[in-house]
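One-letter codes give the sequence; backbone shape is given numerically. An example follows:

. . .
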Amino acid sequence: MASGGKPGSPGKAGGFWQRLIGRVTDVADAAPSELSTLPAIQQTLAPGASPPQDHATPAVSGLHDFELGAELGRGAMAIVYKATQRSTGRQVAVKRLALSREFSAEDLADVRERFMREARAARSLEHPDILQVVDAGQDGNDAWIALEYVLGRDLSLFTKAGQLLPVREVVQIGARLARALAYAHSQGVIHRDIKPANVMLDRVNGSLKLMDFGIARVGDGSRTRTGLVLGTPSFMSPEQLAGLTVDGRSDLYSLGVLLFQLLTGTLPHQSDSMARLMQQIATEPAADVRTRRPGLPESLALVLAVSLEKRPELRYASGEQMARDLDAVLVMDLQAEPAMPEGVKPQDDAFAQTLRLTPEEAGQNRRSPSTSVEPIDPSQAP
């Protein structure tokens, strides 16, 4: 895995805050070189001589500190580039978010502020299974974030029939992700967009990285030019899909959906209609994973059932609790590899991607400019 050293402390000269506001740190007066053995009097200027020129390289800050290279990928709102950090020489990935293209002018300032707040929170996370945030900032009306560069493939590759990972490996991945989330939640950071595409796996060296902390939060409560940003509907908890306040238990619901898909190649709720999908997530129990893959142990099915409960208070209270149950499944009930699911049909995964939809497409009525509609609490649904 390719990654550099830890980023410098935010309090040091040329650090995060200086880069954030676009300032270049002043170069302090240099002390006399330790290599110089000339007497001080010989270093004074002769009459008429020009003062020596300072050829020190000025500090580089902000996005200018990164030399962008090849494009690595693009999504609904961002393009990711492989890049080199000039000040350290480390390889990083720079994600540029086209905020000005996506959000209305009156929301831009709030969206940028929210992005920087979430980026600072994510930058404070230091966990072996969480992708490190190197730096972040604004570029005009848009924003960018520099991330640790890692090798591997995202987990969406392993959600297709014929490409599923061994069950033991999936359960091990689930336990590691649950513990990574437990750490993040203990630091007050909620991910909000857990899905296979946001987890990078390198099976050669066993590296696992949870990516994109807080990015989904950028669009909360803001209108876009093209419609309503819903995130990734198939992986969203009922309370998140309803627009309610979420906590760490929402991430654990999404993790349950991720594990369900890795184990079966299907999603617990599926529909060709966004409105119908939202109704299923809000009101209908998730399918027992054994209906899609009968060979799975009951203990694993129970872990997924708890994580996919509609009401947050019925789910795992923490990622550590979920991780311990997954550990127990590994020890007690997965001595042999269960049979692969039979007859899994390729599914339309349109709702397993980040989407931009109009309120009508999302099954909502268009809001009147003079009225405000409160979201429906899924726990109160009939």
Q: What stands out?
A: The radius of gyration is 25 Å. DSSP finds nine helices and ten strands in the chain. Residues 1-46, 54-58, 221-230, 355-376 have pLDDT under 50 and may be disordered. Residues 167-186 form the longest helix (20 residues).
